[in-house]
Write the structure tokens for this entry.
Amino acid sequence: MADTMTEILQTSIPYNPLAPHRLPGIQPLAPEEWLRFDDGFAAQMRHRERLLRQRREAVLQLSKAAEPAAQELLDHVLAARYGADPATPSVLRPDGRRVTLDRKDPLGSLGCIAQQDFCLLERPEGAEEHVMTGAILCFPASWTLAEKIMKPLLAIHGPVRAYDAGLAARVQRLFDGVQVGRPLWRFNALWYADAELHQPRTEADPRPTSTPQTQHFLRSELQSLYRLPESRAVVFSIHTRVLRRQDVLAQWGAEAEA
């Protein structure tokens, strides 16, 4: 459950979040669209920095084995969004704040320069599934990093009713098949009672749904899969938008009432 109330809202969304789609709903993503900034960037980044200061262990976990992948991810984000090389000591964010980079803390640095959350998933030799080996997760949508870190995909999605053996096999094939330079994306759409972005919940404490009081805000995540070429880790990135119900209706009309 959210432990703060920080209302950070977008007023529009670049895709129809209520369009019906069959799980897992994966589509190709143009490489230049992998990381986006939007009108919520400045406020989201302030919230991310606050969470990293106050709740670092809750929002950042990295196994020793995943450190090379985390360093590689930082390099890719610097190149893709800032046109910077790995030796860059600092970057100027779109909101005008200059951020000093700490190469010893790659996920912490990422949390201060990118609007997205990032989960690293790697497939150990001989394993049947990818395992979450690290993450910077400031804005969880009703799950907790502590319950998911170092678990394989099927265990991570245990509470998701639709995530049966058939869907699990399809998702694992996607993780195995995503290619360097050819990212994939999907979206979800969830109604929430409030606009707080930091919404951790344990598996034993599911989010209440399906009442008028829980449907004031639409939370939609643009989720992408991106293959790192050297470590071969798969990056699961999450770009979260939260809109008032009336703004979703104004943009997408009756489709948002489904």
In short: Helices lie at 41-54, 56-59, 67-82, 106-113, 145-148, 153-156, 165-177, 245-252. Residues 1-5 have pLDDT under 50 and may be disordered.
